[in-house]
Write a structure and sequence with these properties.
about 130 residues, alpha+beta, 2 domains, three-stranded antiparallel β-sheet, two-stranded antiparallel ribbon, 9 strands, about 20% strand, elongated
Length: about 130
C-alpha cells in the first residue's frame, strides 16, 4: 500500500446518515474494519470486511438532506497530502521497537517498524530491561 491509498472520511461522514448499522441491522465495529470497497455503479453502498478474505457486510450510505436540498457525496481526499505518512513521535517509535525486542511484535516485522518515519530520524537504540 502507498500513502495515496489512505483516504480522509471526515467530510464524507458529515454528509451521510446510517453509519451505525449494516444492511442486516448489525452494529458496525469501525475500529475492526480491514477492507472498505466502493463501486461507482453502487453509489450509495459500501462493502466492508472485518477480516481479509472474510464475510462481506453491506453498508447503505444515505445522504443527508439539508433544508430540502439533497447533498451529493464528496470525492474522498487523500489523507496524507505531503505524499507520506505523518511521523511517529520519538516515544511511540521507541515503544514499538521495545515491542519488537520483547517479541510481542514478531521479529519478521522488525524491519518494517524500523523503517517507519519518526521524529528525530536518527537511529534509536532501545535496551530491553
Amino acid at each position: 500500500m502507498e500513502s495515496s491509498d489512505f483516504k480522509d472520511f471526515k467530510e464524507f461522514s458529515k454528509n451521510v446518515v446510517n453509519l451505525d448499522v449494516d444492511s442486516t441491522g448489525r452494529r458496525i465495529k469501525w475500529r475492526e474494519i480491514r477492507v472498505m470497497h466502493f463501486e461507482s455503479h453502487f453509489q450509495n453502498t459500501c462493502t466492508i470486511q472485518y477480516d481479509y478474505g472474510g464475510e462481506y457486510h453491506f453498508l447503505h450510505l444515505i445522504p443527508k438532506k439539508l433544508r430540502h436540498h439533497s447533498v451529493t457525496f464528496v470525492e474522498l481526499q487523500t489523507l496524507y497530502h505531503d505524499g507520506g505518512a505523518t511521523k511517529l513521535s520519538k516515544v511511540k517509535f521507541a515503544d514499538l521497537l521495545k515491542l519488537c525486542n520483547k517479541n510481542v511484535i514478531p521479529g519478521s516485522y522488525r524491519e518494517f517498524y524500523e523503517s517507519l518515519p519518526h521524529e528525530d530520524n536518527q537511529r534509536t537504540v532501545v535496551k530491553c530491561g
